[in-house]
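User: Modeling request: complex.
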Amino acid sequence: MKKNIVIIDYGLCNLLSVFNALRYLGVASVVSHDPASLKEADAVILPGVGAFADGMQGLENKNFIPAIHAYVKTGKPFLGICLGMQMLMDKSYEFGEHQGLNLVEGEVVSFKNRFVDGKYDFKVPHIGWEGLCSHQVPWQGTILRELKQGEFMYFVHSFFPVPKDEKHVLAKTSYAGIDFCSVIARENVYGCQFHPEKSAQHGLKILKNFVELTS
Amino acid sequence: MALKIMKKQIRIIPRLDVKNNTVIKGIHLEGLRVVGVPSDLAKKYYLAGADELLYMDAVASLYERNSLQDIIRRTAEEVFIPLTVGGGIRTLEDIKNILRAGADKVAINTAAIKRPEFIKEASQRFGSQCIVGSIEAKKMGESKWEAYVDTGRQSTGVDALEWAQRLVDLGAGELLITSIDCEGTKKGLDIELIKKIGDCVPIPVIACGGIGTSQHIVDLLKAADVSAVACASILHYGIAAIPSLKKDIAQTYKGAVRTSYEKEHCYY
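Assistant: Request completed. Predicted assembly structure:
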């Protein structure tokens, strides 16, 4: 049976990259700005770049929030990417305090760099490739299955999520001396702080794993 | 308070200067020679382990147009690393169109010098993470550089270091610093310029111009706070390939480059 993969379009970002990556994997997907499309979906991806408040506003304007909650209750796989991952949390401190989707308990906080001894201690945004390391939860049966420890992914972000419960941390990544949560997993809800669709073959593998969770 | 010792990290970014649907390369941004077909080179560099690709419309500012959309659209179908596009980006509409074609970031030079507020508007609309402030710098004297526009042809009277700071304040998420003096020479980067800018800005800096050996990158990494290098001649003319560059860098700075592609196995 053909799977119905829906990429949520809430007017913010470049959705073509995720669509292209899935197509390259031989998986057809639908970019949709209609919340009703989630009812028929076998898997849903929430991409996103930009500011947290704008993202939540975009979801609200298109009435996606109740549809996302209803979809997640079905137990079918859901993946948030970058801002899409941050919006899974209950709140963010990006330009004030904002409520998120509340699918994973925890908050979104920022990297803070400082000017010390004539230069910055590190650069923000964090832009570049970094490795994934497992935390407490094994990767088998998840979107990270068959990936090796330390596999590099492409990050571009100034904020990162801090899940309240460590068992929701599927992978951690180190930047600026901080080990932050780079992959979240809570039952059928997943989130990647990096861009799997821009992380070469190992990123594509994660998307493939995600799609295969539907079968 | 002591500075935290940060792990050195560097991205290797092939730079493709495009004119009339071909990749060209010059010296000091002039005297252009054809070196290949954009989509072929993009694919080749992607498979060789490029961390990102930088496309520059070589003549866009001069003719007030941009023509990379089709090339980006084709590249984005089979190349899954970040794509940055520069040259001739003048309006929010230009940015929207090139992002829709599959670009992840835009590099803006001339239009920002003409109207600095453009950077602010662009970063507010699309997010800082996709706005790269591009500076083409020419050395004017002891520790002094001037920003040039129109692919290194036109002086502006703007001090490059002050302009770098200003671009940060306006909302750029990253800076691309091209040394016009070093560009295309393969004789090494303008390390002093990159160090000066790298130290004074809180955002990542991409250094461009003059890379002819892997040692040039190692020397830069040693001296400056830099997040990426853009290379052209060294790759286009086959002087070195990306895996060998990364291997050399990793010998001095272990873990500074993404190397896992070398263990590539096909998952799909």
